[in-house]
Amino acid sequence: MQNRILFGINSVREVIQNPSIVQKVLIQNKISNPAATHLKEQIIRSGISYSFVPEQKLYKQTKENHQGFVALIGQIQFTDLESILDLEKQQLFMLLDGITDVRNFGAIIRSAVGLGASGIIIGQTGSAPLNDIAIQASAGGAFHIPIVRVNHIKDAMYILKSHEIALVGCTEKATSFVSEINLKRSLGIVMGNENKGISKGVLNLCDDQIKIPINDVLDSYNVSVAASLVLYEYHRQNN
C-alpha cells in the first residue's frame, strides 16, 4: 500500500493516538477555533512531526473539507488471524462477505471499534479495498482494530470454528431476531454483500442466522447500519 492521508479534526484526533504510523501533520496557519486549538495542542504534546502551512497547501492534499488538518500516514498492515485469537477471553469478529462499497467498509470498521469488536475479516477478492476513502469513513478507526485479509472468507470461518467460536449470519432469511439469540459468547458475525447478501456457501457454514426488526415499508437496512445494530445488541447483552 502507498502512503495515505487523513483529514479533518475528528479523523486526525483518532490517528494521532497511534503516533508510530503518522509521518507528519500539516496544520493550517492561524486556525484558532476551540476544537482546532485543542487538537494543535494534542499534536504538539504527542511528539509527532508537524508543520504550519497555508490553506492552499492543504488543498493540494485533498479537495475535501479538511478543517485545517491533514495527516500523512504510513501503510496499514493486515493481521494474521491466528495471532489475535485468544481462547482465554470472549471475542467478537466481523466477517465481511463481499462488501464492495468502501464507505460501508469504513463505517463498519468505525462501529466495530466503537463497540469493542476484536477484529475485522475480509476476503482477498470481491471486497472493498482498504483505501483512503474507507480509512476516512472509519474516522481513523482502521488504526485501532486488527484487520485480517484471507484468501476466502470461508478460510477464516474454518479457523474460527476450530477454536469453537460460533458463526452467526445476519440475513433477512433468518427466522430469529438478533435479540432472541445468545450473544454472550465468542462469535464471528457475518455480514453480506450490499445487493446479494451472504453467499450460499458462506451462509451454510453459519451456526445461527439472525435478522433485524424492520418496518414493512422497507425491505432492508444498509449493511453498515445493520452491522451497527448487531454490534450494539452484542454490546447490550454483554454489558
Describe the structure.
With 239 residues, the protein is α/β, with parallel strands linked by helices. It folds into two domains: 4-73, 60s Ribosomal Protein L30, Chain: A (2-Layer Sandwich), CATH 3.30.1330.30; 81-237, Alpha/beta knot. It is built from nine helices and ten strands. The chain has helices at residues 9-15, 34-46, 55-61, 81-84, 102-114, 132-137, 153-162, 200-204, 223-237, and strands at residues 4-7, 22-28, 50-53, 69-73, 92-97, 119-123, 147-150, 166-170, 187-192, 208-210. The model has no long low-confidence stretch (mean pLDDT 92).
Count of extended strands: 10
CATH fold descriptor of the largest domain? Alpha/beta knot
- Rg value: 19 Å
Task: Label the overall shape.
Answer: elongated
CATH superfamily descriptor of the largest domain: SPOUT methyltransferase, trefoil knot domain
The largest beta-sheet arranges its strands as 7-6-5-9-8-10
SSE ordering: EHEHEHEHEHEHEHEEHEH
How far apart are the termini?
A: 38 Å
Which oligomeric form is depicted?
single chain
Q: In DSSP terms, counting alpha (H) and pi (I) runs of 4 or more, how many helices? A: 9
Strand composition percent: 15-25%
